[in-house]
Amino acid sequence: MASLSKDFELQGGDTVYVDRAPQFYIYGEVVRSGSYAVTDGMNVMQAIALGGGITPRGSESRIKLRRANKQGKVIEYDVPATERVYPNDVIFVRESIF
């Protein structure tokens, strides 16, 4: 097996496996719900922008985040737009209260 620390040439019949990029998930009052790649240092507002932004019915002050703690239990809490996004986070943009 070739060392991965050096350049090497692929040969016919070689198979290359590439891990999937870490993802976060967004839904609720955003233009495009779905899963997106997490980038280093990404915050909630940047994540919302990837989802097309908040719809006219959504509220920037009513954002929930679901994240697993070290024991694997999922905890949901209110977050500011500056909160950092981590792989497997789920962001929910709630409807504004009129």
Q: Would you give an account of this structure?
A:
It is a single chain. The chain is 7% helix and 33% strand. It is mainly beta and 98 residues long. The chain has a single domain, classed as Roll (Outer membrane lipoprotein wza fold like). A 5-stranded mixed sheet has the order 2-1-5-3-4, with helices on one face. A hairpin with a 5-residue loop joins strand 1 and strand 2 (34-37). The radius of gyration is 18 Å and the shape is elongated. The mean pLDDT is 92.
- The percentage of residues in β strands lies in 25-35%
Per DSSP E runs of 2 or more residues, the count of β-strands stands at 5
Instruction: Output the CATH class name.
Output: Alpha Beta
Shape: elongated
> What is the CATH architecture descriptor?
Roll
Q: Predict the CATH topology.
A: Outer membrane lipoprotein wza fold like
Q: What is the makeup of the main sheet?
A: 5 strands, mixed
How far is the N terminus from the C terminus?
A: 63 Å
* Average predicted local confidence, pLDDT: 92
Radius of gyration, taken over Cα atoms and rounded to an integer in Å: 18 Å
Q: Into how many domains do the coordinates divide?
A: 1
CATH homology superfamily? Outer membrane lipoprotein wza domain like
Count of helical segments?
1
- Give the strand line-up of the largest sheet: 2-1-5-3-4
What low-confidence regions span 5 or more consecutive residues with pLDDT below 50? none
User: What is the H/E string?
Assistant: EEHEEE
Q: How helical, in percent, are the residues? A: under 10%
Structural class: mainly beta
